[in-house]
Amino acid sequence: MKYLLITVLFFANIVYSQSDQKSEKILDEMSAEIKSLNSFYIEFTMNVDNPATGENSRQDGLGYVKGNKYFASLGQNTLVSNGIKNWTIVKEEKVTYQSDVDLESDEAMNPKKLMTIWEDGFKSKYVKGSTKIHEIALYPVNPSEVNYHTITLFVKTSNNELHQAIMKTKDGSTMKYTITKFEKNKEVPESKFVYNPKNHPGFQLIRD
């Protein structure tokens, strides 16, 4: 649950200003592509490394997005939203938390945020490129309000799709998100975005 919360806070605290033209053009094209999709599916890994504490961990995640509906799983925890209700399924506790959607705060939980994290709260800079990858650095506009100082994006030159995002935090940790699969306009049943208690026998449902 710890890294699920870190991930949500990461995406929640991410205004596009003073960016160089090359990076801005690439990021604008990426945003336009994501917003043009009816739905998509992603698989990703999250690696956390902190030399000070000796921590080195990996979790696998996946996400389905269709409009304002989503299903996201990271490690042992799952977030489900039908655009009206949210459900947070915590396997370790055998508890599901249900709440009404808050459009301002809940957007951060949508996997779409991983694919468009540069849109809010950052200046961008084109660092370097190769035949395969663009490297773009993101710097928070209000660094005192967040727990990280830099996010580096690695973007595929062939199709302008996000390959990897690396966040450097102020406590010395490195969080690396790597997109391992990305499917556009994937058919997703509506049932994917609604919590079904029959699939979670023995779980307590707590309504907010």
From TrEMBL:
InterPro entries for the chain: LolA/LolB/LppX, OM_lipoprot_carrier_LolA-like
SUPFAM superfamilies assigned: Prokaryotic lipoproteins and lipoprotein localization factors
Gene3D superfamilies (UniProt xref): Lipoprotein localisation LolA/LolB/LppX
Keywords assigned by UniProt, alphabetized: Lipoprotein, Signal
Tree of life domain: Bacteria
Protein name: Outer membrane lipoprotein carrier protein LolA
UniProt source species: Brumimicrobium aurantiacum
Organism classification: Bacteria, Pseudomonadati, Bacteroidota, Flavobacteriia, Flavobacteriales
